[in-house]
Amino acid sequence: MSLRRTTTAIATAALIVAAATTAVAQAGGWGHGSPKNGHTSKSATVKTAKTGKGMILVSSSGSTLYMFTADAKNKDMCVKHTGCTSAWPVYPVSGKPTAGPGVKASLLGEIKVGKLEQVTYAGHPLYLYAGGSGASTSYIGVSGFGGTWYGVSPAGTPVK
């Protein structure tokens, strides 16, 4: 591999890690000042936001929450693909997630993913996009890591 390609690969990896760290911090943080311990500092809240594609679920900071079509019910398959969790970090929670206005508390849950607990909705593990912010629909319909990423409606169905 040439020096130029190696430098580009290292710079790209650093940007992905920085974006993932920012997304997790916006989602409520890892707690205790370190992402290694896998604990969030507070309960995650799931809210709704109106977009051009309709109502979607968003994080407590207002970032779009995504579902992954490769997942099984209450099963995160992103962790099985190298680089997936850097681009699509889990929406982490410590304890029970909280339902904001328009969100059905009965559809909220959590699953264990490695050392983290991940919020689920209607059985769909929820993710953030590391490069996104706010209630954006720009990444809805993106394919990668063996599936497609969609927004989630308050009914728990894909927003395409």
Description:
This protein starts with a helix and ends with a strand. It has 160 residues and is an alpha+beta fold. It has one domain. The chain is built from two helices and ten strands. It is 18% helix and 26% strand. The N terminus is likely disordered. The strands form three sheets. Strands 3, 8, 9 and 10 form a four-stranded antiparallel β-sheet that branches. Strands 2-1-4 form a three-stranded mixed β-sheet, with no helix packed on it.
> Tally of extended strands?
10
Uncertain spans? 1-41
C-alpha termini separation = 39 Å
Radius of gyration (Å)? 15 Å
Helix content: 10-25%
Global shape: globular
Run of helices and strands: HEEEHEEEEEEE
Structural class: alpha+beta
Mean pLDDT: 81
Number of domains: 1
Note the total helix count: 2
Give a quick set of tags describing it.
160 residues; 26% strand; globular; disordered N terminus
Outline of this structure?
The protein has helices at residues 3-27, 84-87; strands spanning 45-51, 54-58, 66-68, 98-99, 108-113, 116-121, 124-125, 142-144, 147-152, 158-159. The chain has 160 residues and is of the alpha+beta class. Strands 3, 8, 9 and 10 form a four-stranded antiparallel beta sheet that branches. A three-stranded mixed beta sheet has the order 2-1-4, with no helix packed on it. A three-stranded antiparallel beta sheet has the order 5-6-7, with no helix packed on it.
